[in-house]
């Protein structure tokens, strides 16, 4: 398999045996093989302005599956330059979460913008109460921008078709804009192969998944037909041949 299009993050297994493997995508060395600039190079630094968010209003960003936080911090700095005269500083807040407590602890310890960026441990397939509390604390009903980057496959493999559609619906319900990067189907096959190579059983749902093929298009269809969102822009594809799609609540 071409590593440029199906990288180590397609694999899975016990990260203690293999630091490039993790059953939920919670890789301990993720940003060594997929550095933040792979995404940031496609996203304009003026994105918040282009979406209509002004410098004098609070803007909330949610990063789903933040891992150890490097992309969260880089994304924030990309959208909110840290110059002293920047009026947007202090107005934009980012909440990143991951189900892996050790990764979240690392993100918290290395966070250089603690007044603006918060990291918490959360499994979005089980509970979103912490997200509602965060929104309430900031006087908002939804996040202005939600980042869901390379997360959908892991929810799909571990929680089935229903888990995938519930994830998309849940994110749409709490977001005004959603930036989505869905792993292509070839990465599902690679993840299953790697699991077998480690002598493990297949993912519980892999063979019974009915949602297959063009995963970005399946996600778009669900968001548009069932979640009241519309695709407003594609930022092209990453070096790993994954589309970055931006949706807006209608």
Automatic annotation (TrEMBL):
GO MF, one annotated term: RNA methyltransferase activity
Superkingdom classification of source: Eukaryota
CDD domains for this protein: AdoMet_MTases (cd02440)
One CC-aspect GO term: cytoplasm
Span of domain Bin3-type SAM: 37-250
Main location group: cytoplasm
Primary enzyme class: transferase
Subcellular location per the Swiss-Prot or TrEMBL entry: Cytoplasm
EC code: 2.1.1.-
Reaction(s) catalysed (UniProt annotation): a 5'-end 5'-phospho-ribonucleoside-RNA + 2 S-adenosyl-L-methionine = a 5'-end (5'-bismethylphospho)-ribonucleoside-RNA + 2 S-adenosyl-L-homocysteine; a 5'-end 5'-phospho-ribonucleoside-RNA + S-adenosyl-L-methionine = a 5'-end (5'-methylphospho)-ribonucleoside-RNA + S-adenosyl-L-homocysteine
Entries under InterPro entries matching the protein: Bin3-like, Bin3_C, BIN3_SAM-bd_dom, SAM-dependent_MTases_sf
BP terms from Gene Ontology: methylation; negative regulation of pre-miRNA processing
Alphabetic keyword roster: Cytoplasm, Methyltransferase, S-adenosyl-L-methionine, Transferase
Keyword Membrane: no
Purpose of the protein: O-methyltransferase that specifically monomethylates 5'-monophosphate of cytoplasmic histidyl tRNA (tRNA(His)), acting as a capping enzyme by protecting tRNA(His) from cleavage by DICER1. Also able, with less efficiently, to methylate the 5' monophosphate of a subset of pre-miRNAs, acting as a negative regulator of miRNA processing. The 5' monophosphate of pre-miRNAs is recognized by DICER1 and is required for pre-miRNAs processing: methylation at this position reduces the processing of pre-miRNAs by DICER1.
UniProt record similarity statement: Belongs to the methyltransferase superfamily.
Protein name: RNA methyltransferase
Organism in which the protein naturally occurs: Oryzias sinensis (Chinese medaka)
